[in-house]
Amino acid sequence: MQSSPPKAEPAMASSSQSTTRDPLTLLKYIESEISSLYTSASAKPTDETPPHLARSKYLDIHTAIHDFDLATKKRDSAISGEYLYHWLGSQMRDYCTSMRGYIFRDQHDDNDASSSRNLLTAYLSCYRKFGRLAILVANLMQCWERHWLRRAKDEKKISVGSIEELHKLVWRQEVLESIARDSVSKKVLEELHTAMEVLEETRYGTREGDLRIVKDVVQSLSCLYNRE
């Protein structure tokens, strides 16, 4: 189990002077800002756009992560980049758990086209938003990704080599493969496939967009399970 880092100073309001801060203070700031992105995104699951960041805030976060990456390279550093990896994964898991609950919030009728359409539309909306959120986080953390994450992958310490890959892995595990974790859980992949079959069987008497919905879901699943 990943241990908690030592206590740090209060989170800084800005990283404009972050080069003078220790890695624990930088970490506290990074955690606060990145966590707020996932929290903000989960509050509006139907809005496919990622949270907006003002340019000054974007630069503050980017600079803090750059300085954290430099600080944790020192041998006497109290913390390493690995802690940030595990923490980031936990943020993604919490977010995906919330989205899974939203997507499957209503009982799905296997024979009802409207129910199938709603399920697949909700899945696509949440998946697209998560993908855009992944790009935003990856852009903010590109320095850490390049210097720690990719090296850890090359050294076979972890299985993913980018932040976007980590997002896909967590989405697969928490949304698609989270089978029977509670009394109302179903096999999520089977439920999505059944919904697609219902729309395909009834598409001639329903909306023209149904075929597009099915195609988009198939493409998203193919992307998630495609191993390079």
The string of secondary-structure elements, in order, is HHHHHHHH
Q: Unreliable stretches, pLDDT < 50, 5 or more residues?
A: 6-20, 179-186
Overall radius of gyration: 20 Å
Q: What count of structural domains?
A: 1
DSSP strand count: 0
Major sheet summary line: none
Structure description:
With 228 residues, this protein is mainly α. The chain has one domain. It contains 8 helices and no strands. The chain has helices at residues 23-42, 55-71, 81-103, 113-140, 142-154, 163-176, 188-202, 209-225. Helix 2 runs parallel beside helix 5 and helix 4 (113-140) runs antiparallel to helix 6 (163-176). It is elongated. Residues 6-20 and 179-186 have low confidence and may be disordered.
Features:
about 230 residues; mainly alpha; 8 helices
Describe, in short, the structure shown.
The protein is mostly helical and 228 residues long. It has helices at 23-42, 55-71, 81-103, 113-140, 142-154, 163-176, 188-202, 209-225.
Question: How do the strands and helices of this protein lay out in sequence?
Answer:
Layout: H1 23-42, H2 55-71, H3 81-103, H4 113-140, H5 142-154, H6 163-176, H7 188-202, H8 209-225
Helix pairs in contact: 1-2, 1-3, 1-4, 2-5, 3-4, 3-6, 4-6, 4-7, 4-8
